[in-house]
Amino acid sequence: MSKKWGPPHKPINFLASTLTGSDVGPLLFVFDNFETVQNPAELYSWLDTYVRLPNKILITTRHREFKGDYSVEVGGMTEEQCDELVDATASSLGIGNLVTPQYRRELYQESDGHPYVVKILLGESAKEKRLTKVERIIATKDDILDALFERTYTRLSPAARKVFLTISSWRSVVPLVSVEAALLRPDHERMDVAAAVDELHRCSFIDVIEFPEDHQLFLSVPLVAAVFGRRKLAVAASRQEIEHDVQFLHLFGAMQPSDIRHGVGPRVTRFVKSIAELISRNKTTLEQNAPVLEFVARRYPPVVDPIF
Fold it and tell me: CA dist 148 to 62, 119, 141, 280, Å?
C-alpha cells in the first residue's frame, strides 16, 4: 500500500489508495443507487480522480448526470415480466381476483416497466380494496419514482407518516415490537401502530418479514424509499420528536436482514440491558420505564425469565 495515502484505519485514505492500486490485483468497485448518496456530483468527481486501471468502477443510477466510459441503458421489465410481478404482488395484497387484463396493461404503460412503481400503484388499489384507475404520474422518466413517492406520501394517514419517518431515518431492520414500544409510550398521542404498518406495507413503503418460530415481525425500508423519508424528515414539524423516538429504537441495537434468523429475543434482551444501564447511570428511572418494559414483556414473554 502506498504510504502517501495514510494508514488503512482511515477509511477515505484507504479507499483512495485501493482505487489507485491493490495488492490483491484488479478490483471492480460497484456503487449501486448512486443517486442516493448525499452529494453524487462530488463523489463522482472524487472517484474519477483516484481510480486507475486496471481497477474499474460500476455505477448504477436512475439519473443521467454521470456518464462513464461505457454507458449501458437499462430499460424496465417486459410486459410479460410486469404481468408476473402484478400477479404476485396483487395476490400478496389480497386483490389478485380483481386484476383484469386491461388493468395490467395500464400499469405497464404508466410504470414504463419499473417494478417499484408497479408495486406502489398496486398498493393504491389495495388501500381502497378495489381497482382504482391508474393515475397519470406527471414527471419525467428520471423523476417518476420521486413524484410517485410524493403523491403516495401525501395520502398516508398521520400515523403511517409518523411510522415511516421514524423507521426510514435509521438504516436498520427494526422489530415491530420496538416501533410499537417507541410510539406508544405514555408521553405520545395514542395511535394504531399495527394499522399504520399495514398501510405502509400495502403502499410498498416498507417491507415486513415474519420470523416463523415466534411470528414476530420485522420492518425494513427499501433504500430509495428511505432516502425520500429522510428528505421529508428534514423539513417535518415533528422532526425533534421523531429523532427522539429513533434514539429510543437504538436501545434495541442495529440489525441486518441476516440477523432476523435469530429472532427478536436478542433485540429485546439488549433493550432491557440498555435500560438497566441507563438506570444505573442515573440517566433515567425504573418508574419512568416501567410501562414500556411491561409492554415489551407482554409482547415477548420469554424475555422475563432470562432478564428478571
Answer: 14, 11, 11, 48
pLDDT in tens, 23-34: 788 899 998 878
Q: Give the integer Cα–Cα distance in Å for 18 and 12.
A: 10
Yes or no: say if 160 and 229 are a contact pair by the CB < 8 Å rule: no
Helix axes 158-168, 176-183, angle to 10 degrees: 120
d(CA 242, CA 3): 44
CA atoms in the 13 A half-sphere facing the CB of 73: 4
**Bond into 7 cis (ω within 30):** no
pLDDT-based confidence at 112, cuts 50/70/90?
Answer: confident
Q: How far is CA 291 from CA 26, 182, 186, 271, 294, in A?
A: 56, 11, 8, 14, 5
Reply yes or no on whether the pLDDT at 239 is more than 90: yes
Q: Is 220 helix (H, G, I), strand (E, B) or coil?
A: strand
Instruction: Give the distance from CA 120 to its chain's centroid.
Output: 14
Q: Tell me: the pLDDT tens digits for 48-65?
A: 888 988 899 998 877 666
CA distance 187 to 3: 54
Residue with cell 440489525: 255
